[in-house]
Write a structure and sequence with these properties.
5% helix, DUF4249, 1 helix, signal, three-stranded antiparallel sheet, mainly beta, Immunoglobulin-like, 265 residues
Length: 265
Amino acid sequence: MKNSKLYTILSLSLILSACTKVIDLKLGNDSGKLVIEANVTNANAPQIIKLSKNVAFTTTNTYPPVSGATVTVTDQTGQIYRFTEGVSGTYTNSQLKGIAGYTYTMSVLTGSITYAASSKMPASVAIDSVTSKNNAFSSGSNPTKEISVHYHDPAGVPNYYLCVMSINGVQVKNVFAFDDEFNDGLAVSEVLRETDIDIHAGDKITVEMQCLDKPIYTYWFTLSQQSANGPGGSVTPSNPPTNISPVSLGYFSAHTTQSITIIAK
């Protein structure tokens, strides 16, 4: 199974709902390019699209928002959902709830240029459970824990996953992207080996699992492959393949989402 971890190349921020996350991606050493971070999910929560300008990879993480854009999402039936700007650069819609199997098309008009992207929301794969156990490399009276997510992969269809983990309400910097290349149709126990925050008995763990379409999986997998050459590495990260046209930084993802919270034992 391809299993990858994206370290400090990106930061994840919780927006409005535990099930709705906007993942901030500002890569490369140039600046001033449009960044689109757009998600449509099946959650009962506002859908969020964020627009900003990137800054050089080596500078501080302050990203100028892009205001005054016209932002819409259209479903495959032709229904148009208009997004309104609240916080500068953040556009939301509370009427749209994604439906598995539907294709959604985003349109962003800013600076006389229209950016567009489509994404098909795949069927949801249920999390069976999330468990914790002692880390094999930890010892002592208070050993660290490792977390696993368990699910049954549907047979005969490609599936792509992204997991996000929080510890005591703080999202770890690791992100886990994997597919079913070697476990199609099998019961899967995926160990989420994070290196950001030590986990101990009594910690509150939340794991969100997203089911992605292939272009968005490719986006995250490409980023995660760059992690070894990211901050502190020898190569400046390049921009991952986007599904947005004309080419910009960022992505448009229609995905299902679900979360389970446990107390580590």
